[in-house]
Amino acid sequence: MKKFSVVIVGGGSSHSPGIIKSLVEKQEEFPLRKLVLYDISEERLKVVDKICKQLIKDLKEGVEYVVTTNPEVAYEDIDFAFAQIRQGGLKMREKDEKIPLEFDVVGQETCGAGGFSYGLRSIPGVFEMIDNIRKYNKDAWIINYSNPAAIVAEATRRKYNNEKILNICDMPVAIQLSFAKMLGLQSYDELDPVYFGLNHFGWWTKLYDKNGVDRLPELREKILESGLAASHDKHHSDPDWKKTWSNFKEILEDFPDFLPNTYLQYYLYPKEVVEKSNKEYTRANMVMDGREKQMFEEARLIDESKGKHKVNLDLFNAFGDFMVDVAASIAYNKGNRYLVIVENNGSIPTLSKDAMVEVPCYLRSWGPEPIVIGEIPTFYKGLIENQVAFEKLAVDAVFENSYQRALEALTLNKTIPSAKVARKILDKLIEANKGYWPDLK
């Protein structure tokens, strides 16, 4: 069985231990010959390395383990790059969330003005990463996990035609795991979904179990009766995420045709979301005071105990299983079916061919093969077309260095009430993102 070399780009992330845990646990399905942690921050790499030392003891004999800040060392001999970079770190995420809230507009990491701000920062960083990988390695698959995935996917489509680049997101998996648990199942992949939309902007229309039975009608009734059960792990079970899960029932009551992605709350109820938001303490602060502090605390305890402290890996849970499953399906030409982000090309025939949609795809060694969803109802089509236009204009702003395209994008976004508000937010975001954004003229 062929073995593979994997680099985790952004290896200093608090999500890395969860990904490495999955790689270790899935060595039979996806055997490794080398595992690389790469980051531009030596400090963060050292912290994650300390935490992962306990994990890598379970790597099979002969697997090389490398920790590096050198891109040539990281990329020269790899088959897969798992990319999870965050340009500007959590400090810039905090600005993404708080600046829109100053104007009573949704402040969220990947949606609305915050997602726009993050997207314009991410595109140059993702391009630099891809160029560096291709400089040292022409054939590696890049599994991009970097947010905001929808905007990034549109940008990589334009520049690289997404050749051996697959953009993915774990949120549908997180939600689907909650679905599975409510139905008495154990794993997200015990349900075969039919799903259409964009990243953080989509709907489930069918949920088939392994007997071919559509469980969606049964699940809909359960959710309408008692709400969506909170997800299984610590990361998605804190008070802020529980509020997100509780909003699911409200969306379903108003729009009962399909099961929604939880992020739709920001687009369907922007006013109510802002009213419930703490403008001084957003999700970025929760992550800094939670998962980030816990990671550094675990590293401190390891040092103090001279390596004897047993790390609580549940603190760093990420959906690494999904990333590894995707890579294994490509590596061994399994053709397994997963929700990933691809160019539409007729999967949803009433949408533009070059829209980057999130739909079920069979993953082969040559790439994703999307299923045909067919036509979708007018209400959902209208919402998606508006969001696609926003995403394309956001990428236009980067490619054209255009203030006008940026203003058009924000004006079009459903979370922003007027062009005047869009301009005020844009001007403040330009100031906040100096050194990260292109020079918009």
UniProtKB/TrEMBL annotation:
Q: Per the record's keyword annotation, is Cytoplasm included, yes or no? A: no
Keyword Manganese: yes or no?
yes
Q: Provide the binding site for Mn(2+).
A: C169, H200
Identify the catalytic residues: D170, Y263
GO terms (molecular function) for this protein are: hydrolase activity, hydrolyzing O-glycosyl compounds; metal ion binding; oxidoreductase activity, acting on the CH-OH group of donors, NAD or NADP as acceptor
The protein's site described by Increases basicity of active site Tyr is found at E109
Q: What does the cofactor section's free text say about binding?
A: Binds 1 NAD(+) per subunit.
Concerning Gene3D superfamilies, the annotation shows: Lactate dehydrogenase/glycoside hydrolase, family 4, C-terminal, NAD(P)-binding Rossmann-like Domain
- Where is each Glycosyl hydrolase family 4 C-terminal domain found? 195-415
Keyword list, A-Z = Cobalt, Glycosidase, Hydrolase, Iron, Manganese, Metal-binding, NAD, Nickel
Q: Name one Pfam family in it.
A: Glyco_hydro_4
UniProt-listed GO biological process terms: carbohydrate metabolic process
- InterPro entries given in the database record: Glyco_hydro_4, Glyco_hydro_4_C, Lactate_DH/Glyco_Ohase_4_C, NAD(P)-bd_dom_sf
| Names of the cofactor(s) | NAD(+)
Q: Where does substrate bind?
A: R93, N147, R283
Give the record's family classification.
Answer: Belongs to the glycosyl hydrolase 4 family.
State the oligomer form and interacting partners: Homotetramer.
Q: What is this protein called?
A: Maltose-6'-phosphate glucosidase
Instruction: Recall the taxonomic lineage recorded for the source organism.
Output: Bacteria, Bacillati, Bacillota, Clostridia, Eubacteriales
